[in-house]
Amino acid sequence: MASLRLFIVLLFNICFYTSGTEAKAPSRPVQPYHYDYSRIQETDQAWKCWKEGYRPPPATSNKIHEQGNGTVAEIERILRFDQSNTVLFLFSSNSDNQNLHTTFTVERNKLVRLSLDNAGLERLELTLLGRENDCRLADLSVPRNRLRDLPTGVERLIALRKLDYSYNLLEEFKLDRLANAAGLKQLLLSHNRLERFVATEQVNLAALHKLDLSNNRLRALDASYWTMPQLETFHVDNNRHLTMIDGCSRAKFPLVKGFDPAGTNNWNQTWLKSVQ
């Protein structure tokens, strides 16, 4: 009889354990993220400064292109490419990357173009040593991420021709930080949360031809310290509380063809007519 009781107890425990195991929720599937990237590596050619339109000759370079779906770990592996021999890296994704959280550090490099589009970036850093890298990076494009600040050391990027921070979370932008980028041609900051776009000293961007501050939260804008004689395209639409731009006149920006019509901003109509 004792043996029978022991058998019944053991059978009950086994059934209870099996039932509990089966009741556990299934593990959540790993979310895949789409990626598409191109990377051009250069191994032999030593060159000191960026030239517009530069592409390394086939004899000394190797192009890699991949696309597919990967986990967070896979995306992070892709972003850890060897910067010491890469001159061009273009990454993009068409996934909903709200749950993708990544960081990226620009290290000692040969990079001419770096584009990280919708890569889940929450932090971007520069850790350049010495002055060897100061004349290389010409295109820094990081649209559709969650960046709240410019990286420390952006002042070092004296060869910048294009800076694209559109569709991020910037609340303030200090133009003074780009004072050393004399060859900057495009500054794209649309669809952020900008409340302040300021310069506290004279900033001469003699080559700048496109400035996009549209779809932000600007209430005031002062162009008094800007020198941009080649500026042609100046987007400030959809800053609904912006009434006028101090220091802005036809004489100061002769190539700008005009601002967006009333309705997207709360323009002072007298001022708007004076600069159209």
TrEMBL record:
Keywords: Leucine-rich repeat, Repeat, Signal. The keyword Signal applies. Pfam families: LRR_8 (PF13855). Gene3D superfamilies: Ribonuclease Inhibitor. Residues 1-23 form the signal peptide. It comes from the Eukaryota. GO terms for cellular component: cytoplasm. This is Leucine rich immune protein (Coil-less). It comes from Anopheles melas.
